[in-house]
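Q: I'm writing up a methods section and want to include an example of the input and output format. Could you take the sequence below and give the corresponding predicted C-alpha cells, formatted cleanly so I can copy it straight into the document?
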Amino acid sequence: MSQARQEQAPKLSGHTGASQRETVPFTLRQLLAYFLRLGTFGFGGPIALAGYMQRDLVDERRWISRQDYLEGLALAQLAPGPLAAQLAIYLGWVRARNLGATLVAAAFILPSFLMVLALSALYVHYGGLPWMQGLFYGIGAAVIAIIARSAVKLVRMTLAKDWLLWSLFALNTLVTAWTAREVVWVFLLSGAVALMVKAPPRRRRATAALSLAPWAKVLVTGLHGVASGGTLIKILLFFAEAGAFVFGSGLAIVPFLHGGVVEQFHWLSDHQFLDAVAVAMITPGPVVITVAFIGYLVAGPAGATSASIGVFLPCYLFVIIPAPTYRRWAGNLSIKAFVNGVTAAAAGAIGGAAFVLGRRAIVDVPTLLIFAAVLAVLAGVKKIPEPLVILAAGGAGLLMKGMSAG
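A: Here is the clean output for your methods example:
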C-alpha cells in the first residue's frame, strides 16, 4: 500500500471497516487516467456519467467504496452546479484531498473543453453546422435510453425495500416531471424528513463558504467581432451565477442559460443557442460544457475560458470547502439518514428528468425505434462502449433526417 493510501486510511472515521475492505489500492495517476478517459469518451449527460463512475470505480475496479460514492452523489445533488463534475471532484478529494480534487477536475473537464473549442472555431468559420440537427435527432433518443438504464441501476443500489425512501423517490419523480427541473427545496425536505423519521438529531451544525476569482480583461473576437473586457466580465459573472445558484446540472441550467444568453443579453439567437445545446450533447464529458461554446461565440477563446471558469469554479468550491466536515460527520446516524433521504430524492429526480428529456427527444416513430434499440443493446450487451452506441445512433438519425428531407 502506498504512503498516500496509508495516510488516508486513518481519516475514514465515518466509515465501517467493512466499507474500507471493499476497496483495493490504486494510485492518483490511475485515477487521473480514468477521468481523462471518461472526459474524452463519456457520453450521455450527468446521470449517465455518474452511472459510469459507479460501474467503473465502485462495481468493477473497487477503487471507491459504495459509501463514498453515495456520499459524493448526495453532496453533488445538495450543492448547485453540474452533478457529474462535482461527483468527480469529490471522488478525487476522497483519494488525495484538495490536490486530488483539483487534478481530477482538470482531467475530467479539459478534453470536452478542447473539443468544444474546435467545434466552436468551425462554427464561427463556416457559419453553422447544419448536419448537427440530424445527429442530435438520433443522439437524443440514445441518451434517453442511457439515462433510463442508469436510473434503474441507481434505484436498485440506493432504495432497497425502505418504504420511506421509495416515497421520497416517488415524490421527487413527480415534482421533477411536473416542473421540468430539480427543485432544491424538495431535496432538502426529503433529507430532513428521512432525518426526523430515522434519526432525529440533537443538534445541528452547518457551514458554507464561497469565493470567486477575478478574470483578466482580454479583447477577443466572437461572432459579432471584437468583444470588450466588460463583456468578458459579464460572461464570467453570468456563468458564475449559473454555477452557483442553479441546481440540477444539465437539465435545470439550460432554461436559465436561455433566459440570460438569448433574452437578457441577446448574445445569441434561439437557433444558435439550440446549436450550443446540441454541441454539448454530441461531445463527451459534462453537459454544461455548452457554456464554453456559448462563450466562444460571444468573445472567442477567452470568452469560452471565462464561461467555463465561471460555471465550474463555484461547483469546485462547493465540494472542497464542505468536504472535510461533511466526510467527518458522514458516519453520524443523523447525517446518514439525511443523506439517504437526499439520495432517494436524487433517484426520483433522475426518473423525472428521464421523462422530461424523453418527451423532448422521442418525438416520432424513428426516434422511438432508436430509443428501443439502444435500450435493448445496453441491456443485452454488457461491455459495449457507450460512445459507439452514441455514434451509431447519431448516424441513424442523420440517415433518417436525410431520407425525410429527400
